[in-house]
Amino acid sequence: MSLTECQQRVDAWISRFEEGYFHPLTNMARLTEEVGELAREVNHRFGQKTKKKDEPDADLGMEMADILFVLICMANREKIDLQEAFDRMMDKVDRRDTSRWTLKPGA
User: What are the two backbone dihedrals, phi and then psi, of residue 48, each rounded to the nearest 5 degrees?
Assistant: First the structure.
């Protein structure tokens, strides 16, 4: 599914509800909360902070998907085409960073 299709799918879901998209500051708080949940799990798995004995592992993919959902909501509310923005960002890093790192043979 392309980013455009993801944006359309989220918009179709949100459009079913009278409340619509949250205010930008609410979405920013939601995004921060979701990033914190991902950070907590990454820290538990790879950092020095251990989990409590009865605390289950979180699903890293779901934590990332939660972040993506909120980002899509933010983009949709502001009429930002994420596919176009992502493509521009990749062009930027291709130009800026290609000679910054060691390319693998044949790349």
Answer: -90, -15
> What type of residue sits at position 79?
K
What per-residue confidence (pLDDT) applies to 52? 86
Sign of the torsion formed by the C-alpha atoms of 27, 87, 35 and 66: positive
pLDDT of residue 49: 86
Rounded CA separation 78/65 (Å)? 20
Structural domain boundaries of the chain?
3-97
User: Which CATH number does the domain 3-97 belong to among 1.10.287.1080, 3.30.720.210, 3.40.50.150, 1.10.3720.10?
Assistant: 1.10.287.1080
| Residue range 19-52, pLDDT digits in tens | 999 999 999 999 999 999 999 999 999 999 888 8
